[in-house]
Specification:
The complex is a heterodimer. Chain A is α/β, with parallel strands linked by helices. Chain A is built from nine helices and seven strands. Chain B is mainly beta. In chain B, a hairpin with a 7-residue loop joins strand 7 and strand 8.
């Protein structure tokens, strides 16, 4: 399935396509969905990014380090705003939850916050992490809160939920991604989004230890893939 | 962040001795340690805004540095400290960064809550 087919199966055909992205950390949007979001914003979509935390417990502090535990939240907030501008996201919401603590958060508060956004925005598509297959406990807990909340809606009111997964066993457990988006035409927005996260993007595990060639950028970042969450 | 000058840290520790302070203490391998290298064990701990008072404190080692603070009821210890935020003159913001710049340990003291 490609993204156009997802749009066709989403239940809200009126006006602009509305997409709600829910991730816990600044920079999740860059690596998971920046190209997809930029592509559909270019086609007229309205995007809200609900970022649960400011990533204030992150370990990357720049090379050499220019941030610390006290200054990191403010730095990452500005990076997040820059990233959203690079992608073209119209509505950024910083929800103020504490980094690393999503799995321990009051579920009623968390789910209620997500439900309020769903009722207000009525998105056709929600993008989040696949619970259980997204490595970081905050990723799993965020995806779990999103699918728990949407699962309580009547089936006919549920948006399409597209999940990102990258744990080492994810394909064995949930198969191959069923939605692939070619974002090569939007790589300049995506790379600008990634590089907005100046305190983070130098991390070798994210971008490697050297400047990538255009071909390497295309092969590494040119395709974004998602699993449509199946509510049983 | 600037590399630690131990004599300077010692004078900052002395200034805060005997006062009621808020402590942030943290040690972390990072949440991705095991995902990136299955031989590694992901482990982290932090405590934020614990209220403490120490009667004696010092910095030691040749870098990375250790700090030990003797409190009224016990001890506070941090090993692996490399950097200080020199711009923050009210609070003592110490951290240990690895060769990739990543934070491994943080020891922070403040008269007001973080």
């Amino acid at each position: 399935m490609n993204m156009d087919e997802v749009m066709n199966m989403s239940n809200n055909q009126a006006d602009a396509l509305r997409i709600l992205a829910v991730f816990p950390h600044p920079d999740d949007e860059s690596f998971v969905a920046a190209g997809t979001l930029a592509k559909y914003i270019a086609g007229g979509a309205q995007v809200t990014f609900a970022c649960l935390t400011l990533g204030e417990m992150g370990r990357n502090m720049g090379i050499p380090p220019f941030a610390n535990r006290v200054t990191l939240p403010g730095i990452r907030k500005r990076e997040l705003e820059d990233s959203c501008r690079a992608i073209g996201i119209q509505d950024l919401r910083m929800l103020g939850f504490h980094d690393k603590m999503i799995e321990f958060e009051d579920q009623e508060l968390l789910d209620g916050t997500i439900l309020d956004m769903l009722l207000e925005l009525k998105p056709s598509i929600v993008i989040t992490f696949y619970p259980g297959y997204s490595v970081h406990p905050d990723h799993d807990a965020t995806g779990a809160a999103v699918v728990r909340t949407i699962g309580r809606l009547p089936a006919e009111e549920r948006p399409v939920v597209l999940c990102s997964a990258f744990s080492s066993n994810h394909e064995q457990m949930i198969g191959k991604a069923d939605v692939t988006v070619d974002v090569t035409a939007f790589l300049s927005s995506k790379m600008a989004s990634i590089q907005s996260h100046r305190s983070q993007f130098q991390a070798a595990e994210l971008v490697g230890s050297r400047v990538l060639t255009d071909e390497e950028i295309r092969s590494r970042y040119g395709i974004e893939q998602f699993w449509t969450y199946r509510f049983s | 962040m600037q590399p630690i000058q131990p004599q300077h840290i010692q004078s900052r520790i002395n200034e805060l001795s005997g006062r009621e302070l808020y402590l942030h203490l943290e040690l972390t391998s990072g949440a991705y340690a095991n995902h990136l290298d299955s031989s590694r064990h992901s482990a982290s701990a932090f405590i934020s805004n614990a209220v403490i008072r120490y009667t004696q404190g010092s910095i030691s080692g040749t870098g990375p540095y250790r700090v030990g603070l003797k409190t009224e009821q016990g001890w506070i210890y941090a090993e692996g400290l490399t950097h200080i935020d020199e711009q923050d003159t009210q609070r003592l913001i110490l951290a240990g960064h690895d060769s990739m710049g990543k934070l491994v340990i943080a020891l922070q003291l403040s008269l007001e809550a973080f």
